[in-house]
């Protein structure tokens, strides 16, 4: 059989229940507030992370664009260098690989290279002082072509038959190409002097070769 509870004990239990309820409500409010703060912080962190990703993507795109421009400019400058070097430049292969550990601005470095190439001497025409050498090239080409023609004529005479008819014609054709043969050593001379084989040097070579060819044909016909 239940015993009646004294009013003072009941009142104390009610106060304790009220205190516990107040503490639970306060803790619930604190937990809710903490959760909201954590959500705000998480949202802020996600937003900052997304911004950093976007910035990194833009920087990567800019870096790739810069790399493409630098590679294209480096290849162009390398081609200019090969052209400036003439025959020596043709022995060069592709542009050298990038050097690791260089922190300088590549655009600035390429600009300095372009300025250096612009300051180098542009290939000019061979000076008039080499005209005797050019004439010698023409004469040498004529002599060489005439010698080959003479060998062809001798071969035709030696074998007889149809060769006796065809080889003299071939010999004459080869001999007439003598002035053009002299352009080969003349071009080599121009390349060694970092110059171009312009109209005047070509005229000197052809004129000397033609004169030598005519003289040879007249003397040894």
UniProtKB/TrEMBL annotation:
Q: Which residues form a coiled coil?
A: 39-73
| Bilayer-spanning residue ranges | 133-151, 163-182, 202-220
User: What keywords would UniProt list here?
Assistant: Coiled coil, Membrane, Transmembrane, Transmembrane helix
Lineage: superkingdom: Bacteria
* The protein's name in its UniProt record: Uncharacterized protein
Q: Which organism is it from?
A: Micromonospora musae
């Amino acid at each position: 059989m239940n015993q009646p509870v004294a009013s003072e004990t009941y009142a104390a239990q009610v106060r304790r229940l009220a205190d516990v309820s107040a503490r639970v409500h306060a803790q619930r409010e604190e937990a809710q507030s903490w959760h909201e703060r954590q959500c705000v912080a998480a949202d802020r962190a996600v937003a900052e992370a997304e911004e950093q990703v976007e910035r990194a993507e833009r920087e990567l795109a800019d870096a790739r664009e810069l790399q493409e421009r630098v590679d294209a400019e480096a290849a162009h400058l390398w081609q200019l260098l090969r052209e400036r070097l003439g025959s020596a430049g043709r022995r060069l292969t592709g542009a050298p690989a990038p050097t690791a550990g260089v922190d300088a601005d590549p655009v600035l470095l390429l600009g300095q290279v372009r300025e250096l190439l612009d300051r180098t001497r542009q290939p000019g025409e061979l000076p008039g002082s080499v005209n005797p050498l050019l004439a010698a090239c023409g004469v040498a080409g004529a002599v060489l072509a005439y010698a080959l023609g003479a060998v062809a004529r001798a071969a035709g005479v030696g074998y007889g038959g149809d060769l006796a008819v065809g080889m003299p014609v071939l010999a004459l054709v080869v001999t007439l190409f003598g002035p053009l043969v002299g352009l080969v050593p003349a071009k080599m001379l121009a390349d060694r002097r970092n110059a171009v084989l312009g109209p005047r040097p070509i005229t000197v070579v052809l004129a000397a070769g033609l004169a030598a060819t005519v003289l040879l044909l007249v003397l040894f016909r």
